[in-house]
Amino acid sequence: MCGIVGYIGKANAPKVLINGLRRLEYRGYDSAGLAVLDDDQILVAKSAGKVSVLNDRARTQWPQELFNRVTTGIAHTRWATHGPPTEVNAHPHLDKSGDIALVHNGIIENYRSLRARLEGKGHHFFSETDTEVLAHLIGECDKGDLFQAVCDALHQVEGAFGIAVLSAQEPDRIITARRGSPIVIGVGDGESIIASDACAILAHTQRVIYLDDNDIAIVTADSVDIRDLNNVPVTREIAELGMDAAATEKGGYDHFMLKEIHEQPEALANAIRGRLDHDVGSSVLAGMGTSPRELAELTRVVMIGCGTSLHAGLVGEYAFEDLADIHAEVQQAAEFRYRNPIIGNCDLVVAISQSGETADTLAAVREANQKGAFVMSLCNVVGSTIARETGRGVYLHAGPEISVASTKAFTCQVAVLLMMALKLGRGRRYSREDGIKLAREIGSIPDLVSKVILQNDLIAKIAADYTKNEHAFFIGRGPMYPVALEGALKLKEISYIHAEGYHAAELKHGPIALLEKGTPVIALACDVPGKDKTLGNVEECRARGARILGIVTEGDHETAECMDDFITIPRCHPLVATIPAVVALQLFSYHVARLRGCEIDQPRNLAKSVTVE
Ligand code: M6R
């Protein structure tokens, strides 16, 4: 979604800002803009479309010398909410005087009433955005102290914001603040970088400060002064990013998605390393922050998430019930707080989120905290809001996931959920002997995944026969059912083929009406409990002319023969098998999308981190 970069220091600001925006491109956006401070006046360049278009625009609009002299500015990539992705709606927006520029992530919910009030006072608006209203409001509140003006304006605002504000009258500072939308400040040597995502800071420094909700900071080249909205100073620690800039490059792959699929053996090894205790057949997940007694007292596990993270939770549901004999369920994060969930202090609520910033999941975390549940998170992005608000949790250690389509985060989420279920299971019904066996299987996941990735060329060849269809169905049973959902999500989001995931038994309750000659049905037919019934459903589809691609277990020739095409996964525990199976579907979707010429890493309309409800 939208991205913010701000810079104040000694370097060429437009260059730093454009490079920062490029680092945020993966988040998804449809227009971009920047404002720089030149001789105490604000200059703005904006464009619809990509950051490269903005760069060209700025270079034709501004003289070359300007690029060498300006050292302060703010920039933005916009994912349209209020008004289409046009140049006029792009950020930064100026106040009435043109002396104040603002970039904003989030949504100002009461912008209509604020706009009407300001119009009554003679303000004229050029865009359809909520952000321009906030820019004017700050200008209206400005009585010669920008910091105070921003505080006063934010007191009148309802909704979510991450902002950076520049004023021609106070050129030595940028004011930044957050409520519900992340802001990170990079503390460099004689320079400061503000961003909505640490990826934009990496090239400058590893030292960062994460703002908390309702924090507002005065950022200069040499200092960061943080207060709350009532002007009371607050202390925020400087943290080390510990991120490698190379991890955010394509590294020779055509797309981040392909790179991230190939990174999975290593990502999974990192997620698992040091977390399995092979002697007692359990796992060591210190971040859960639970004593064995607390674990024993839990009566239910409730997982919350959206999209791919929700699907990981669905696999977790099977794992907790199978291994730990504990009631487990997954709830759609967007619904959680609107349905009065029955949650209490014997419930373990697990918030699953790659980014740790998804607005719906964050709101669900707050609701679960409110209800006194034992809340923990399963995030990838270190220092993200959900990770910080839950206080306890397990990081995935999958490394930066840049492609909008989630791949390595999903497999690492499932691996960590399996380890959690194993831990809970060992405290309940699961025997040491079974625990040791499963720990060994979990430890082998990176190798299982490598074996699937070795079939990349074969999968690419199979994919070539599935590029012309406009509809596809994915079917599975048991823990392979969520894998079918995830496979369908992967295919639809990057190839724009309409794909549906169904429980294999559900197909004949309606969707089978859509099958016709050649409709692809991708069947999760691995040799796990329920396979024979899935094969029965495959026959029902074949009888209606469907073309069947099976995900089958290595050596299961009989099943492979039932398929028009097949991809194999190694034989392993049924829950563990979900991971290699999904990797096969990730590669399949990737190749179908590539052959259809789709823009894989940044699919249309999608954002990497969905920070609005
Ligand atoms: O960062 P999160 O895991 O909270 O994101 C949740 C979803 O937005 C995300 O998984 C989305 O569905 C992906 N694009 C799927 O590939």
Describe the structure.
- The chain is α/β, with parallel strands linked by helices and 613 residues long.
- The protein has three domains: 3-247, Glutamine Phosphoribosylpyrophosphate, subunit 1, domain 1 (4-Layer Sandwich); 250-443, Rossmann fold (3-Layer(aba) Sandwich), CATH 3.40.50; 447-600, Rossmann fold.
- The chain is 36% helix and 22% strand.
- It is built from 21 helices and 26 strands.
- The strands form five sheets. It has an eight-stranded antiparallel sheet with strand order 3-2-4-1-10-9-11-14, with helices on one face.
- β19, α12 and β20 (374-379) form a beta-alpha-beta unit.
- α1 packs antiparallel against α2 (51-61), α10 (307-324) packs antiparallel against α18 and α18 (480-495) runs parallel beside α21.
- The longest helix is centred in the last third of the chain and has 19 residues, at 408-426.
- It is globular and about 75 Å long.
- The mean pLDDT is 94.
- Residues 306-309, 353-355, 358, 361, 404-406, 489, 493, 609-610 line the site of 5-amino-5-deoxy-1-O-phosphono-D-mannitol.
Quick recap:
The protein is α/β, with parallel strands linked by helices.
Describe the protein's topology.
Elements: E1 3-8, H1 13-24, E2 31-38, E3 41-48, H2 51-61, H3 64-69, E4 72-78, E5 93-94, E6 100-105, H4 111-120, H5 130-141, H6 146-155, E7 161-167, E8 174-179, E9 184-187, E10 192-195, E11 207-210, E12 215-219, E13 224-228, E14 239-240, H7 256-262, H8 264-272, E15 276-277, E16 282-283, H9 292-297, E17 300-305, H10 307-324, E18 327-332, H11 333-336, E19 347-353, H12 359-370, E20 374-379, H13 385-390, E21 393-395, H14 408-426, H15 432-443, H16 445-453, H17 456-463, E22 471-476, H18 480-495, E23 498-503, E24 520-524, H19 531-543, E25 547-553, H20 557-561, E26 565-569, H21 578-595
Parallel strand pairs: 17-18, 17-19, 19-20, 20-21, 22-23, 22-24, 24-25, 25-26
Antiparallel strand pairs: 1-4, 1-10, 2-3, 2-4, 5-6, 6-7, 7-8, 8-12, 9-10, 9-11, 11-14, 12-13, 15-16
Helix pairs in contact: 1-2, 4-5, 5-6, 8-14, 8-16, 10-14, 10-18, 14-15, 16-21, 17-21, 18-21
The structure holds 5-amino-5-deoxy-1-O-phosphono-D-mannitol.
5-amino-5-deoxy-1-O-phosphono-D-mannitol (M6R) binds at residues 306-309, 353-355, 358, 361, 404-406, 489, 493, 609-610.
